[in-house]
Amino acid sequence: MSKNFSLRSLLVRPEVATFLMFLAIMIGFYIANERFLDARNIRIVMGITPEYIIVAIGIAILMISGEFDLSVGSVFALVPMTIVQMVHQGIPPWFAIFLGLMIGIIVGFVNGFITLRFGIPSFIATLGMLYIARSLTTVATAGFPPPFPHILPNELFVYQFELFRASLYWALLVAVVLGVMLHRSNVGNWIYATGGDQNAASSMGIKTGNVKMFCFILCGFLAGFAGMIQTFRLEAPLPSQGYLLELESIAAAVIGGVSLFGGIGTVFGAVIGAILIRFLESGIIMARIDAEWFRAGLGSLIIIAVVFNTYISRRATRIGQNKAKD
Amino acid sequence: MEDIIVCEGLNKYYSGVHALKDLSLKIKKDSVVGLIGDNGAGKSTLIKILSGAHQPDSGHIYFEGNKVKFKSTKEAMNLGIETIYQYSALIPEMSIARNIFIGREQTQYNVGNFGLMKTKTMQDDAMKALTDVELHLRSPDTPVNQLSGGERQGVVIARAMYFKSKVLILDEPTNHLSVKETNKVLRFVEGLKSQGVTSIFITHNLSHVYPIADHLCVMARGEKIADLDKKDTTIDHLTDLLVNG
């Protein structure tokens, strides 16, 4: 009986459902084309995935606190572009990286400040920032994408090992540190409480404004850091980098079981969600399906994931309430 | 008996509306005070001031004989005044244990105010806190949204007890509850007296608070219109005051 119950409570965890979906997709595409899971394809997919994982984690934590950030795609381009341009201006590489990452932090702060100070939806505040940061990136490009300065320490972030790139280990480091923060630290408890019910959280003495501000800043920083990794991998700063990434990272978080209403979600779910999207993309290509079907597949996946999670959480609540009545 | 809370001449305006008019009130230690009044009588304003959520525009509050000025709910909580709001200060998706320790987590490896939660200790202490208020639930990991309304109030009361509150302010704790669940909550509150906790029970339903109250205070239009020991009054008299103000 108790074993039965723990199995059920495991199945109702949204990220477990995501993981099952992930396995189903992996197996399905493997059947379609065996080379989908060979070392070469895994190397290709996992070479680009870490950047998306890092952004998705930032978005997931911010969404758990009850807010959105639509500007991550633009920050993803702005931060590396400023780093490259600063190096071209003669600023030492590490100092340029430091200043560049500070821009991500500042954008996050501005997003948070506007949302919290003026009490407007973060959807709007960060939609504005989406355009502003993208525009700044194009301006910073000065008409023509600059060459990549090879004095930048890009190997440290993207060196290709046998199977994985260094960027995957950076992403894992981010996931572990922030996973512990979210799930084991008191700050994590405040983030869940703030997103779960802001009134209740502040009546228990939690400074919900500060908690949200922290999540905005974290999200901006991670978006910039991930963008820097992509530029370091491509060795080309492109002003169009990260286009539509904001929606894709929200998709990753949602597929991973993060609630749009805040208070629910895990770092693990966001990681799986991001990996799943990249393998879905690769699988469609490998199965020789027209690549244009990727977006249809992604769209279906988002809807299925949310419908499934909603159904499961309703059922779990009902089971619990029936038990309480007994 | 000594007074644990004394209010003197409290006034509060909300954008021109005089929500609380020159209110003075004494609350005896280890008693259950019923604060009754119709909607808009000023009950909520008074408890927001006592709980530190809002500040009075004039007047003084004394707690255990000392003059106090709360700038936040945290300050009131640190002194031992805990408020249980109508909307229930619990996060539905979070577990019972996490809810009990919101904002007051037990942590280790601290860096400033931040640290890792002692999950096991928090779970054990949560279970103990629940048992102390005679609430027997399966597991401290159960999400609060799987509990009934009465059980949720029980968790909130257990939380207040665990953190050694001296005064518990309950804002309409029996609203939206079935008769059976209401009786449960009333039993929790009655049990508090013997543990040295003073409760202020706010309600517009006289029949809920009358059986367990020692003292009753009736409010209307932001003023206190009656302040009586139970032995000096009857339910009919109080009903008359409530209806006719």
Please state how the strands of the largest beta sheet of chain B are arranged side by side. Answer: 6-9-10-3-11-12
Largest interface: A-B, 30 and 36 residues
Output the structural class of chain A: mainly alpha
CATH top level class name of chain B? Alpha Beta
Give the fraction of residues assigned to helices of chain A.
over 70%
Write the layout of secondary structure elements.
The complex is a heterodimer of chains A (326) and B (245).
Chain A: H1 2-11, H2 14-32, H3 39-64, H4 72-88, H5 93-117, H6 122-141, H7 155-158, H8 166-184, H9 186-196, H10 198-203, H11 208-234, H12 245-255, H13 267-286, H14 293-325
Helix pairs in contact in A: 2-13, 3-8, 3-11, 3-12, 3-13, 4-5, 4-6, 4-11, 5-6, 5-11, 8-9, 9-11, 12-13, 12-14, 13-14
Chain B: E1 3-14, E2 17-28, E3 32-37, H1 43-50, E4 58-63, E5 66-68, H2 73-79, E6 81-84, H3 96-100, E7 107-111, E8 114-117, H4 119-132, H5 149-162, E9 167-171, H6 179-194, E10 198-203, H7 206-209, E11 215-220, E12 223-229, H8 235-244
Parallel strand pairs in B: 3-10, 3-11, 6-9, 9-10
Antiparallel strand pairs in B: 1-2, 1-4, 4-5, 7-8, 11-12
Walkthrough of the structure:
The complex is a heterodimer of chains A (326) and B (245). Chain A is mostly helical. Chain A has a single domain, classed as ABC transporter involved in vitamin B12 uptake, BtuC. Chain A has 14 helices and no strands. In chain A, helix 3 packs parallel to helix 8 and helix 3 packs across helix 12. The longest helix of chain A has 33 residues. The radius of gyration of chain A is 20 Å and the shape is globular. Chain B has 245 residues and is α/β, with parallel strands linked by helices. Chain B has one domain: Rossmann fold. In chain B, helix 4 crosses helix 5 and helix 5 packs parallel to helix 6. Chain B is globular and about 55 Å long. In chain B, 47% of the residues are buried. The mean pLDDT of chain B is 88. Chains A and B meet through helix 9, helix 10 and helix 14 of A and helix 2 and strand 8 of B.
